[in-house]
Amino acid sequence: MDWIYDYVMRICAMTTLTMLLKLLLPDGRIKSSADKVMSLALLACIAQPLLTLL
Q1: pLDDT per position as a tens digit, 14-54
Q2: 11 class by beta-carbon count within 10 Å (0-12 exposed, 13-18 middle, 19+ buried)
Q3: pTM for this one?
Q4: Residue 9 — φ and ψ, nearest 5°?
Q5: Could you say which of 31, 40, 43, 47 would form a disulfide bridge with 25 (CB–CB 3.0 to 4.6 Å)?
Q6: Helix, strand, coil shares, percent, the chain, to 5
Q7: Helices 2-24 and 29-53 meet at what angle, rounded to 10?
Q8: Are 17 and 37 in contact (CB under 8 A)?
Q9: Are the C-beta atoms of 18 and 39 separated by less than 8 Å?
């Protein structure tokens, strides 16, 4: 059961960091690029347990 708690906490932490990054960066190319990178990192964080099962 601990792995489920760790999984959920990791997703919450990544989501919080993504929201903070969106709020702190000014509009422009840097914000757009950082948003894409953080979205890919969040996707990897969510998919990581699924990939370990395969």
Answers
A1: 999 999 999 999 999 999 999 999 999 999 999 988 888 77
A2: middle
A3: 0.76
A4: -65, -35
A5: 31
A6: 90, 0, 10
A7: 170
A8: no
A9: yes
Q: How far apart are CA 28 and CA 32, in angstroms?
A: 6
Please give the Cα distance from 52 to 38 (Å, whole number): 21
CB 41 within 8 A of CB 13: no
Provide the token pair at 3: 């792995």
Q: Alpha-carbon distance 18 to 46, whole Å?
A: 14
Tokens of 34: 């950082």
